[in-house]
């Protein structure tokens, strides 16, 4: 009884606290709140200097100097440089998401020019595969998907163009501040520019719950605005702004009013599909659709006020009619401002659209402004451009830090801030705060360009360290998570890298760039779980099935079993960092899966073509392709013994694809 009374008291107390916070004066922030490290302007730290000859020799760039200073304070030393074969394989996966060819490895190993490593980095950054690899990182962050999610999971016409926009932007080394502005306000910059309209499709990337086909009702509109607002905090600012939707943030200095003031910038933003077809094609499509659309309008009118079985029957009729519509014409998946349909933005009690409170205007986050900064009661002509300008302002203390940290995370496996989407109080503090500010400053100073940042990281001795260290026992006991960067961390290939690497070494990779997404065969049982089996129509051209994984359809309600087993994200929310799990289904997928066995057949055929029937040559070539090195004596002996029976070549190839040497990068 006492336990129940205590629990009831706590519930009442928490509820009272929430109500008190929700009704607190708007726009005031304490000095303690403003002092949080990530809200402070970036510092300009001096690069550490060293007197010891060995330290001077190792610290070849400022990154090394900051890292070595911390290591020295802790009595640790960096690991030796990794071998050339390890380095080029590491760089190839890091920048292209693909294994290096044996010819690339041999050329680098034999190239003794002082700039040999720099040439490798420059070549990989200049390759079109760079954009394909790094686009996937950004698509994770913005939870890119080509379907709505939830029970219907309808496909989004032309959403694939956003993926191509990201690939092309990264390959062109588009400045990151421009990249931000285009995604938040591309349609406002130039409504006639297709690329900018596609970029603005970011606003529609969140999951969408259909409400009997009607997106104009208040509940649906609220969810759409919520998705638009949340991604600003998660992707660009690296803060959990979404936690302030229902009440003042429990830990960070974000009032509920801050949340809705950011949302106010999107009050006039509405979906816009821009048809890309000739007038003749449009007229023909309209004629084919006319009768069915008339019926659809009648059914929607009948649905108003209906409930229960009557509503269900009408919903089923609506779905059947929708299926009769002709295939949509090519279109840009975008947004536009419609000020006549502007949504009044109110604070919502507990985030519920049925309980509006004070009306608010547009304003950036208050903790980064002077107290009393007014909000915009009336939206400017280009509201999202104003928001984007604030986000991309070099003086914004979050934006450059957040992206510099993401780059570090994707290259080192752990961010300087290990919670890339949370620079708040509940996020982890930076392990090297001075280095983070230095990187942020260099990023802005270099015109917000990503490629020079990649190069600076990969040219550092910190990045080039070996996994093995003479101090391994001491250092691992002292710093088991390698926060101080005393050696390189091994990592398993991500799902897309693994699939693409299998295609590459088997000789089956289709290197075609861009275009509509690919649907590949899956088990019928999975298709039957979809709302409609017609949502999974396999591409008839089998050569398209061997495209890179970034071009596979990003469908929320069906992920390929192999990709899911190897920790691909679920596309519902922003994924700042992927997990790297180890479990039995991974081995089962790699040994018994249809794709793995198909790739093993391809690898076996390639080995026969390139190495003939000599077991020694086959084993050597297999390891050169899959591991970027020749086999050890033990691997050679076992491989040759296994291949004494030539009928085992496919099984040998499958075993090679299951080796740690193939699936992991040192």
* Helix count, DSSP H or I runs of 4 or more residues: 29
- From the spread of the alpha carbons, the general shape counts as globular
Proportion in helices = 40-55%
Question: Which class do the helix and strand fractions yield?
Answer: mainly alpha
Instruction: Return the average pLDDT rounded to an integer.
Output: 93
Q: Determine Rg (CA atoms, Å).
A: 27 Å
Strand order of the largest sheet: 1-2
Q: Strand fraction band? A: under 5%
What low-confidence regions span 5 or more consecutive residues with pLDDT below 50?
A: 9-25
How many structural domains does the protein architecture include? Answer: 3
Biggest sheet overview: 2 strands, antiparallel
Query: How many β strands by DSSP?
Result: 6
The N- to C-terminal Cα distance equals 58 Å
Write a structural description:
With 666 residues, the protein is mainly α. The protein has 3 domains: 56-126 and 396-492, no CATH class; 133-391, no CATH class; 582-666. It is 49% helix and 4% strand. It is built from 29 helices and 6 strands. A two-stranded antiparallel sheet has the order 1-2. α5 (84-96) packs across α8 (128-141), α7 packs antiparallel against α19 (450-459) and α26 packs across α27.
Provide a compact summary of the structure.
This protein is mainly alpha-helical.
Give me some keywords for this one.
666 residues, mainly alpha, 3 domains, two-stranded antiparallel sheet, 4% strand
